[in-house]
Design brief:
Elements: H1 21-37, E1 41-42, E2 48-50, H2 51-58, H3 63-68, E3 71-73, E4 79-82, H4 87-96, E5 106-115, E6 127-136, H5 141-157, E7 164-169, H6 176-188, H7 196-204, H8 215-220, H9 233-248, E8 254-255, E9 267-274, E10 283-289, H10 293-296, E11 304-310, H11 311-317, E12 330-334, H12 337-352, E13 357-359, H13 366-376, E14 380-384, H14 386-391, E15 393-398, E16 403-408, H15 412-420
Bound molecules: histidyl-adenosine monophosphate.
Histidyl-adenosine monophosphate binds at residues 85, 87, 116, 118, 123-125, 128, 130, 132, 134, 262-263, 283-288, 290, 306-308, 310, 312-313.
Length: 423
């Protein structure tokens, strides 16, 4: 009996097998380049943590913590969860290594898989990949603008069309309680029209009701009070400065007053990059400010802000026409055992010199070897047979120009390296 992969989890195959592995590599390489230009360093964090970290960090009444984490007992009985996101882990690491004392602003990024037991659908997986960034140590709106400009440039560099940057301010510990009260008052009068999930959220997480996709909830909350109308003076001026900064950089954005985010740690600026081509799961990247999270997780009062890009969604929007596995410079075709032995050492020496080289591993006919070289897109094929060895020469075929020439076997490695390192 075959054993399939787990529901919502998939293999990412190479392009030559109809998959997208090279497209993922392209997104990762492009992002890494830009992140380094912005002064970020990579942090590698564990795939799993104590469950408590996510419960406290993301919020125990969020969907992620309540329903979506892969949680199990470790052998010593401690609760462990596969990471559903990485911000909490980066904060844990920062506290554990006392990192903030080494630098006034700390800029970190990570790349890797996350795990959420959500209902699988287009653009939503149970194992998915994020590239995320976190900046610690500044509450200045200048950092918010820099982070949003980084998202903007990332998608510009990846050439993803038609994206819309949406931003909102969620207030902070000062003004959010009052907004929450006003919102609850509004929702209380409409409880009968809300879905069962939102009736629960009304008690535990009323802001999330604004994010519900159910038609009834959307209609009932159309006139709901929004956070930007209930900001305290500090949050209001922070938001104004972020908007002014973005305008100054000519970065287009739209205010989405109903943008609330599914993680509890956000304060003030929250944002999402959305695409009209993705259906219900339309965010390709999302994030915001989370001043207070470091303290919540037992560290000092250090402000933070960040975002994460969903790689699967980005790859699905990417123009993949120019992305593929690089083809070999050279294919070494052989006829007979003696030629094969000679080829094995030549292939090794060429690879040692950085020449992408492929060869035949079976005793295939010359015709099928030429066919394979062609399929792989090899620029040249070197043909070695018994006659060639006897004469001390081999045939080099240029697959693009359709020309052949003789190579002297005594100096072939050198002449191939000269030829191929310039082709
Ligand atoms: P998030 O909005 O939960 O934020 O996820 C960020 C991005 O990951 C989403 O916009 C989406 O592109 C992708 N994503 C999320 N869930 C899935 C899924 N099930 N399948 C495929 N893609 C998915 C966070 O994770 C925060 N930690 C971001 C952040 C960093 N905020 C501050 N710093």
């Amino acid at each position: 009996m075959k054993i399939p992969s787990v529901k919502g989890v998939r293999d990412i195959l190479p392009a030559s097998l109809g998959g997208e592995a090279e497209a993922f590599q392209f997104v990762e390489t492009t992002c890494r380049g830009l992140l380094e230009e912005f002064g970020f360093s990579e942090i590698k964090i564990p795939i799993f943590e104590y469950t408590d970290l996510f419960a406290r960090g993301i919020g125990s009444s969020t969907d992620i913590v309540e329903k979506e984490m892969y949680t199990f007992d470790d052998r010593d009985g401690k609760k462990i969860s596969l990471r559903p996101e990485a911000t909490a882990s980066v904060v844990r690491s920062l506290i554990e290594h006392n990192l903030i004392t080494t630098s006034p602003v700390l800029k970190l990024y990570y790349v890797g898989p996350m795990f959420r037991h959500e209902r699988p659908q287009a653009g939503r997986y149970r194992q998915f990949h994020q590239i995320g960034v976190e900046v610690f140590g500044s509450a200045s709106p200048i950092i918010d603008v820099e982070i949003v400009s980084l998202i903007h440039l990332t998608f510009q560099r990846l050439k993803i069309p038609d994206l819309e940057l949406q931003i909102n301010s969620l207030g902070d510990q000062q003004c959010r309680p009052n907004y929450r009260k006003v919102l609850k008052q509004f929702l209380k009068e409409r409880l009968d029209h809300l879905c069962e999930n939102c009736k629960k959220r009304f008690e535990t997480n009323p802001l999330r009701v604004l994010d519900c996709k159910e038609k009834g909830c959307r209609t009932a909350t159309r006139e709901a009070p929004v956070s930007i109308d209930h900001l305290c003076q500090e949050c209001l001026s922070h938001f104004m400065e972020v908007k002014n900064g973005l305008n100054q950089l000519k970065i287009p954005f739209k205010i989405n007053e109903r943008l609330v985010r599914g993680l509890d740690y956000y304060v003030r600026t929250a944002f999402e990059m959305v695409s009209p081509h993705l259906g219900a799961q339309n965010a390709v990247a999302a994030g915001g400010r989370y001043d207070g999270l470091v303290e919540t997780l037992g560290g000092p009062a250090i402000p933070g802000i960040g975002f994460a890009i969903g790689m699967e969604r980005v790859v699905s929007l990417l123009d993949k026409s120019g992305i593929s596995t690089p083809s070999p410079h050279l294919f070494v075709a052989t006829l007979g055992q003696e030629a094969k032995a000679m080829a094995a050492s030549a292939v090794f020496q060429l690879r040692q010199k950085g020449i992408r080289t492929e060869t035949d591993y079976e005793n295939s006919s010359l015709k099928s070897q030429m066919h394979r070289a062609d399929r792989l897109g090899a620029r040249y094929v070197l043909i070695i047979g018994q006659d060639e060895i006897k004469n001390g020469r081999a045939t080099l075929r240029d697959m693009v120009r359709k020309e052949q020439k003789d190579l002297d076997l005594s100096a072939w490695i050198e002449s191939l390296v000269n030829l191929l390192s310039t082709s």
